């Protein structure tokens, strides 16, 4: 075993009598599903009674009736997310309006809605639905609506008093995402003037006093947990490579430990895919000596058909290993987990207002996270947690809690939403934990530079148009500006492709050269990454959205379909803000100018040493073109970029060449002549190749 010394958590014996029932339920549920679910609906209905929350159903409903705002705390898996909205429905709340339940993560919103629709025996999207950015799976019939917290924030723009809702449940409140934090302030206000609305703030952490304090001493309803003992193992010495250590630990558990599924916490999709590949290889090399190991990846962008697999019961004799991001910490509960492997890291966003640099870095988790992770193994029986770090690290190096996202993110998008809700004085906004004034100021500065706010800090017409798009303000500005350059058609394709993320192209290991060549085709003429994305989209469209075209060009069809969906929505929003759809695909300069109109704060100039420096003099920053960019070798003298990400270096992703005079033409209020004075080719080293 990689991990050694043991330390047992205490067992909560008071609920001992309930355990056998829970176990019985798990077994019979597996059986009924295997029988191809003849009475699976009835079974699911019956199963609901064995969840820890069920005993408190009546008390809970009484408390909700009595108190307008209620804080509910209960361990992960107790049934908060799936049951409370159903209880409210059964108690008649949905006659007065919808019951909305927010989730910080898309995958959780989708999978929970799917589960609840099964339990209620209705079609997903009918009585039970979900809404996530760019995907609305609800209908007029929908009474239970699961959604991301960001979606509810957007709904508030259209319906400031949320009059179509009777209850709102802000779930997973402990995650403290920016959207959840902003919702706290807004919902608290709504509850003051809408006495007929109920608010439920639910959380998996025991530290609920803070929520209660914020909501004017709202009462706390605690659902007693029924957790089995969890044996915690630490490594004796720090692990040099936690991914390797995690894989070895999985194999050791698989070979040596009694039946029970494994949950491994990794930091992101790439890492999960790497682990999946390595595990598959090692298992194959062990041959038929070992039992079957079913590998289930779980991360944010996982397609829904694969998502469903994680919840399928493990067949007899096999073992399941779930490779998950933080999402499995509290958002999703997977039954049957007996072993948890915790390398102690997660990907965390951070933001430096001074430089405007956002980064997503692998960071040590907090003690609170470590405890949540360990708890995942003791839900349906005694469990074991293997921490791939030392006891010393746990006790002395991990922070107690993760700081809320609002204190480590760029606030421009949130502030634009607040401004369009008419909240002008942000310093007076009721934040649970206020962001730094530097971050607030920086966001206001950016919105002013983009023309979304006037010099009094009021929303402009451009700002109102921008707020209609569920996108980062720079992307929204690019779209709004495209009207001027008569290329809105091209620009919304680019915006849609950028919104899909970095999953457009794929690189199978054995066909890398072919994949690279296919990709280079779109970059002919060094058009830059934005226009290359547009070409990919247009070429796909020309083949009538052909799947075969995608595979021939090493383009992921799933990502393209998503881009098409997003594009459709952007198109309808264009109409709403009164911008005509016009195409100007041959005028690349016009398209680049529209891009620059949104992204001029992200411009950079080539330096003598081959690096770039961001142009704005006060907070200039060194960066490099990401190797995946079509311009990585070309290195134009002036560029605009979509994102600056810090991985091994500061990289600019999605880069387009610009002419420095455009900066003065487009953003004369932001750049001065001296900012864009060209160094001229003479001062550059001779080994550079210019276009
Ligand atoms: O919200 P909380 O963590 O308290 O629990 P929940 O998400 O309501 O989960 C209650 C039960 O439903 C758990 O035992 C899960 O295994 C099950 N569930 C499921 O089978 N599939 C889902 N997509 C969600 C929950
Ligand atoms: Mg939950």
UniProtKB/TrEMBL annotation:
Keywords: ATP-binding, Helicase, Hydrolase, mRNA processing, mRNA splicing, Nucleotide-binding, Nucleus, Spliceosome
Reactions that this protein is recorded to catalyse: ATP + H2O = ADP + phosphate + H(+)
Superkingdom of source: Eukaryota
Subcellular location: Nucleus
Residue span of region Disordered: 1-43
Feature: compositional bias, Basic and acidic residues: 9-21
Domain Helicase ATP-binding: 61-224
GO CC aspect terms: catalytic step 2 spliceosome; U2-type catalytic step 1 spliceosome
Any single Pfam family the record assigns to this protein: OB_NTP_bind
SUPFAM superfamilies, per database record: P-loop containing nucleoside triphosphate hydrolases (SSF52540)
PROSITE patterns: DEAH_ATP_HELICASE, HELICASE_ATP_BIND_1, HELICASE_CTER
Protein name: RNA helicase
Organism: Corchorus olitorius
Species lineage: Eukaryota, Viridiplantae, Streptophyta, Embryophyta, Tracheophyta
């Amino acid at each position: 075993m990689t991990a050694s010394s043991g330390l047992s958590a205490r067992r909560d014996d008071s609920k001992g009598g309930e355990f056998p029932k829970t176990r019985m339920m798990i077994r019979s549920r597996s059986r009924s599903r295997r029988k191809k679910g003849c009475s699976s609906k009835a079974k699911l209905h019956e199963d609901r009674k064995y969840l820890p929350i069920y005993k408190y159903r009546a008390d809970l409903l009484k408390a909700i009736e009595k108190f307008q705002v209620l804080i509910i705390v209960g361990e992960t898996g107790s049934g908060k997310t799936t049951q409370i909205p159903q209880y409210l429905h059964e108690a008649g709340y949905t006659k007065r309006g919808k019951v909305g339940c927010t989730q910080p993560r898309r995958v959780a919103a989708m999978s929970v809605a799917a589960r609840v629709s099964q339990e209620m025996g209705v079609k997903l999207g009918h009585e039970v639905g979900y809404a996530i950015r760019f995907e609305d799976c609800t209908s007029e019939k929908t009474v239970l609506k699961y959604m991301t917290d960001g979606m509810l924030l957007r709904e508030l723009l259209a319906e400031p008093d949320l009059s179509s809702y009777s209850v709102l449940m802000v779930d997973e409140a402990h995650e403290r995402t920016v959207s959840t934090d902003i919702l706290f302030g807004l919902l608290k206000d709504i509850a003051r003037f809408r006495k007929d609305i109920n608010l439920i703030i639910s959380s998996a952490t025991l530290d609920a006093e803070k929520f209660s304090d914020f909501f004017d001493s709202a009462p706390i309803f605690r659902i007693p947990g029924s957790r089995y003992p969890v044996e915690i193992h630490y490594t004796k010495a720090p692990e040099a490579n936690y991914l390797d250590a995690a894989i070895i630990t999985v194999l050791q558990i698989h070979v040596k430990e009694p039946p029970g599924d494994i949950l491994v916490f990794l930091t992101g999709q790439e890492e999960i895919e790497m682990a999946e590949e390595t595990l598959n290889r090692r298992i194959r090399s062990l041959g038929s000596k070992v039992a079957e190991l079913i590998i289930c990846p779980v991360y944010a962008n996982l397609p829904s058909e694969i998502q469903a697999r994680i919840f399928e019961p493990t067949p007899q004799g096999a073992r399941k290993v779930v490779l998950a991001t933080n999402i499995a910490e509290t958002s999703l509960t997977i039954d049957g987990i007996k072993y948890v492997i915790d390398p102690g890291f997660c990907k965390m966003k951070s933001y430096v207002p001074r430089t405007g640099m956002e980064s997503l870095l692998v960071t040590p988790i907090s003690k609170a996270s470590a405890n949540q992770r360990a708890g995942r193994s003791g839900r349906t029986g005694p469990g074991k947690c293997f921490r791939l770090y030392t006891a010393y690290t746990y006790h002395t190096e991990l922070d107690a809690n993760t700081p809320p996202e609002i204190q480590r993110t760029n606030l421009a998008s949130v502030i634009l939403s607040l401004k369009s809700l008419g909240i002008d004085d942000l310093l007076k906004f009721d934040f649970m934990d206020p962001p730094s004034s530097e971050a607030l100021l920086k966001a206001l500065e950016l919105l002013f530079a983009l023309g979304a706010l006037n010099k009094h800090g009021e929303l402009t017409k451009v700002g109102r148009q921008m707020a209609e798009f569920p996108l980062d303000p720079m992307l929204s500005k690019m779209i709004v500006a495209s009207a001027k350059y008569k290329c809105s058609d091209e620009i919304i394709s680019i915006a849609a492709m950028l919104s899909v993320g970095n999953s457009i192209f794929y690189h199978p290991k054995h066909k890398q050269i072919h994949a690279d060549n296919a990709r280079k085709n779109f970059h002919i003429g060094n058009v830059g990454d934005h226009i290359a994305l547009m070409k990919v989209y247009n070429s796909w469209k020309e083949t009538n959205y052909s799947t075969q075209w995608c595979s021939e060009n090493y383009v992921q069809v799933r990502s393209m379909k998503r881009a098409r969906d997003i594009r459709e929505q952007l198109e309808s929003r264009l109409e709403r803000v009164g911008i005509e759809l016009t195409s100007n695909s041959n005028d690349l300069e016009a398209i680049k100018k529209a891009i620059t109109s949104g992204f001029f704060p992200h411009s950079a100039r080539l330096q003598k040493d081959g690096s770039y420096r961001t142009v704005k003099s006060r907070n200039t920053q060194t960066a490099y073109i990401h190797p995946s960019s079509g311009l990585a070798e070309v290195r134009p003298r002036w560029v605009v970029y979509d994102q600056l990400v810090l991985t091994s270096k500061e990289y600019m992703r999605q880069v387009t060449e610009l002419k420095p005079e455009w900066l003065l033409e487009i953003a004369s209020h932001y750049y001065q002549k001296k900012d864009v004075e060209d160094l001229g080719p003479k001062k550059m080293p001779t080994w550079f190749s210019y276009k």
